[in-house]
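User: Just a sanity check before I run the rest of the batch. Below are the structure tokens for the first item. I only need the designed sequence back.
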């Protein structure tokens, strides 16, 4: 294995920057560029830190640093590792990285440190995925769920289920392979019992994803309405609201900036924030119904903003019709002026959606909007308790497939077919579960997962 290096802290201005090096030559690379202050102490011990300076090939002093040593196998990757803590400026960390690369290391790929940890068996695939999720967490709940996964809770459950199946599989195969021995044929009832238990446990995991998805992806909310209704004012009020945390999330592969507010611990993403802000008031014909429909289509929740000082017109009625089938809240904005429409307006009663009276300008009614959202999505009830919450779409899909295999096997038995016919779907169950923890995951799947990591992790 080659020795790899990368900058592990974000490239910005801060107190400390960290350059990580892993591989059998990690200590040699560092030795070439780092001079400890205490020259006498040449010994390298794990979990030890040395203070000194980084020098370039011409002997020029580059920075004053601390180097932490991790001796294999007691490191994140299980290989020899060093972490250079330098001052945290982009020029400094880049220069030190360059020196590492000129002295025997190659640039690590995104997620490569974690991939090595996985390949070397220190963590399994669910734990590696938990690390990405931890780093990308937008809320405490999401981070809590990822931490539980990192601790191995999901893997333990999956492995226990796998062991249950494996045990029975061994018995079945023995009775098929050695019919001359009088190994008791696994009784159908016995096998069925195991499958029912597996089905039960898989169902629990599968059902937890409903909350898991909410914790991780949250709610996509679209604020629609005619120009001047007050959409940007509401958006600004939400984003500036003290208890709303705005997270600027930089995509790991694409540079997207997404804005979230957190309501009852759940991320709420405002769909097409830029669109709301960039609407130019004189291009009314470009906005209108078409845009509103498009935004509503992609949202879990539609907020329809009305200027309550204006009577409803044809366009409003058209938009109201398009949101009939959606989870939606109607806002009657500008309550500080003279409203001409109210929750008692006939067309609004007919559509039968929650109505909030608001003054976005004076920031009145925003709390009521939050409570309504929390109520509509049962947000208060979503907790990371002692049970396992599946938050990862990949895991959910596999669990769904394995659950189907399990149900097929049960049906085979109930239809009185020979026991050995179930072995095909039982083998699929084992393979499927192994894909979650990584024991049977293909290289493509593994590469796909680690591609999502940031550099230096
Ligand atoms: P958008 O086109 O839907 O994004 O609407 P804006 O948020 O840009 O608001 C249009 C105009 O209405 C601006 O002049 C706002 O200051 C004003 N406005 C928005 N909300 C209120 C409100 O609650 N009360 C009053 N009086 N004016 C408001």
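Assistant: Here's the designed sequence for the first item:
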């Amino acid at each position: 294995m080659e020795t790899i290096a990368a900058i592990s802290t974000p490239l910005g201005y801060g107190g400390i920057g960290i350059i990580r090096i892993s591989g059998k030559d990690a200590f040699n690379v560092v030795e070439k560029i780092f001079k400890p202050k205490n020259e006498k102490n040449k010994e390298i011990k794990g979990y030890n830190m040395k203070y000194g300076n980084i020098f370039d090939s011409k002997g020029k002093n580059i920075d004053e640093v601390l180097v932490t040593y991790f001796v294999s196998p007691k490191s994140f990757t299980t290989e020899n590792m060093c972490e250079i803590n330098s001052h945290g400026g982009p020029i400094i960390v880049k220069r030190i990285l360059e020196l590492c690369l000129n002295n025997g290391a190659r640039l690590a790929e995104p997620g490569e440190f974690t991939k090595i940890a996985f390949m070397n068996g220190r963590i399994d695939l669910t734990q590696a995925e938990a690390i990405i999720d931890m780093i990308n967490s937008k809320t405490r709940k999401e981070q809590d769920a990822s931490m539980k996964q990192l601790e191995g809770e999901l893997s333990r459950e999956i492995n226990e289920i796998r062991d249950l199946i494996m045990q029975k599989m061994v018995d079945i195969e023995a009775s098929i392979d050695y019919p001359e021995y009088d190994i008791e044929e696994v009784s159908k009832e016995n096998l069925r019992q195991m499958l029912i238990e597996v089905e039960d446990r898989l169902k629990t995991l599968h059902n937890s994803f409903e909350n898991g998805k909410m914790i991780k992806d949250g709610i996509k909310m679209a604020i629609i309405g005619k120009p001047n209704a007050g959409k940007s004012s509401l958006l600004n009020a939400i984003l500036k609201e003290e208890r709303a945390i705005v997270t600027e999330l930089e995509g790991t592969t694409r540079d997207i900036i997404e804005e979230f507010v957190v309501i009852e611990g759940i991320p709420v993403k405002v769909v097409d924030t830029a669109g709301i802000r960039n609407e130019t008031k004189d291009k009314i014909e470009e906005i209108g119904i078409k845009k509103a429909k498009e935004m509503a289509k992609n949202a879990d929740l539609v907020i329809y903003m009305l200027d309550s000082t204006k009577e409803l017109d044809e366009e409003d009625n058209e938009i109201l019709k398009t949101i009939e089938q959606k989870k939606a809240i109607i806002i009657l904005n500008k309550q500080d002026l003279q409203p001409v429409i109210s929750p008692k307006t006939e067309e609004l009663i007919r559509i039968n959606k929650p109505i909030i009276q608001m003054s976005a300008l004076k920031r009145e009614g925003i709390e009521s909007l939050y409570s309504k959202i929390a109520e509509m999505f049962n947000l208060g009830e979503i907790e990371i308790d002692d049970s396992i919450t599946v938050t990862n779409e990949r895991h959910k899909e596999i669990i769904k497939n394995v659950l189907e295999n399990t149900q097929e096997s049960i049906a085979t038995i109930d239809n009185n077919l020979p026991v050995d016919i179930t072995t095909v779907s039982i083998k699929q169950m084992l393979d499927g579960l192994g894909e979650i923890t990584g024991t049977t995951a293909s290289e493509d799947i593994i590469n796909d997962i680690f591609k999502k990591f940031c550099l230096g992790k």
